[in-house]
């Protein structure tokens, strides 16, 4: 797969005994894809800022009314910017120029060429829209309950605020899981890396990891004795999740992070050195 324009294009080498990992996901090569992939995080934050007061006034009603808008923006992002699972679509090469060949005379001129181009456009749209809708369905059916359970395990009320917990989990699922499912499907090896926090950095994994870390940091103000209405659960958690999503999405595409993995353990000593000790 070609390299993202903001990335060095190299993935972490694998040892001979390891199953090759799915490479980092690259933003599609078209100019609108590259531009919108940068605009998208700012658009999400702007949408959240405009709805913040309504969410503070009534968290349940505010989160419910804003969820469709956030979902729509996220679906547009995956359709415009990301390759669906199993796709062979052209992605942006290292120099930022598309490697696609220019259309021939038959596709540029004539009635037949225009009709063929029109059919191909609809086929391309449907080939992205259908996976996006399936990814969204799996996001709500599978990812939302899992994240709701994790919120409870990390301290969310179990017997109260159930609507807020579910809606908060739905917002986080749309942010973190939709793009992962859209680009990787149900590939078991990829999801093992996701749960093991071992995916190579890219826009998709960076935004998902940023969502989780942002939500975790966003929980810090809740128990503080400031007596502010915006401290109510899960307002600060979701605020942190959206900020984390934006930061992670952009940071993971930089040459410093793209293709890199988080390493938790120190490098193991080889067998010869163990024996010598």
From TrEMBL:
Recorded topology in the membrane: Multi-pass membrane protein
Position of the signal peptide: none
Subcellular location: Endoplasmic reticulum membrane
InterPro entries given in the database record: GPI_biosynthesis_protein_Pig-F
A family per Pfam: PIG-F
Chief location: endoplasmic reticulum
GO cellular component: endoplasmic reticulum membrane
TM ranges: 129-154, 166-183, 203-224, 230-252
Ranges for region Disordered: 1-26, 90-115
Keywords: Endoplasmic reticulum, GPI-anchor biosynthesis, Membrane, Transmembrane, Transmembrane helix
Biased segments, Polar residues type: 9-20, 90-102
GO terms, biological process: GPI anchor biosynthetic process
Pathway assignment: Glycolipid biosynthesis; glycosylphosphatidylinositol-anchor biosynthesis
Protein name, per record: Glycosylphosphatidylinositol anchor biosynthesis protein 11
